[in-house]
Amino acid sequence: MSKITVATLKKMKAAGEKFVCLTAYDALFAQVLEAAGIEILLVGDSLGMVIQGHESTLPVTIDDIVYHTQTVHRGSKQALIMADMPFMSYINETQALENAARVLKEGGAHIVKLEGGAAFAGIVRQLTAHGIPVCGHLGLLPQSVNKIGGYKVQGTDAQSAKSILNDAKILEQAGCDVMLLECVPLELARQVTESLSIPVIGIGAGPHCDGQVLVLQDMLGITPGKRPRFTHDFLKDTGSVSAAVEAYVKAVKTGAFPLEQHSFTA
Ligand code: KIV
Questions:
Q1: Assigned domain for 17 exists
Q2: Residue 206 Cα to ligand 1 middle (Å)
Q3: What CATH number should be reported for the domain holding residue 170?
Q4: Which domain holds residue 71?
Q5: pLDDT(227) > 90
Q6: Closest C-alpha residue for ligand 1 atom 2
Q7: Which of 162, 169, 216, 227 is most buried, with most CB under 10 Å away?
């Protein structure tokens, strides 16, 4: 695999070739995932839940993200490293720029991801003007769990679907290089993916996105509790971590995952 950049993802979208992303939080997994063909390693703030044992992603700090991104960077040679901007680390343009710069300079990430719609267009403009690629994150926003009242599918009525599509277009215009859609109906995800020229990554957003992401522990089937509908236990089918990740990569590339059974409808 040659070095993956934002430009690579854009070329893959244009060619109709699916790309594959998994969360990674340490050097060894970064190495294993990359060797299995993962193109994007996401240092997600999900680490607050799956690594640190918190109930939500809210306690994650910018220092946590920098630290885990450093470890992933040490284990990776070719993958694109995307790192989350944690809760309250981008409350204004100056603070967002300082924190995003740390994630790239100290952590070694290649792109940052931030949750939120049109209200964050100014921050996206500020970061991209300084050469920091940005992935927008729309649909279910886990950092807003207290406002939403739970981890619920978003964009299920005409008005909220229109607002997500509108936000996506505004964020692309503001300079986002990639967009991530979490837990939205598959038809809405298809509409967003077709409307944007930038690559769209889905999680719980159906099969029509340009790429797919899962939380590593979910796709290995080791997250305790009820497994969300949009994940699949690839370890159960295969028997080793490497084989599970290879199977996930193949399933996404061939369109075998996600299927309608892993998706939501309006
Ligand atoms: O933090 C994370 O792992 C994420 C994924 C759920 C996309 O943002």
A1: yes
A2: 16
A3: 3.20.20.60
A4: 6-262
A5: no
A6: 44
A7: 216
Task: Enumerate residues 6+ apart whose C-beta is below 8 A from 162.
Answer: none
Classify residue 1: in a domain, yes or no: no
Atom of ligand 1 lying closest to residue 44 CA: 1
Per-residue pLDDT tens over the stretch 61-92: 999 999 999 999 999 999 999 999 999 999 99
Q: What is the pLDDT of residue 33?
A: 98
Task: Tally the domains of the chain.
Answer: 1
- Name the residue with the closest Cα to ligand 1, atom 3: 44
Q: Does residue 120 lie within any of the structural domains?
A: yes
Query: Which residues are the active-site residues?
Result: 182
Answer whether 203 contacts ligand 1 (Cβ < 6 A).
yes
pLDDT at 122 over 80: yes
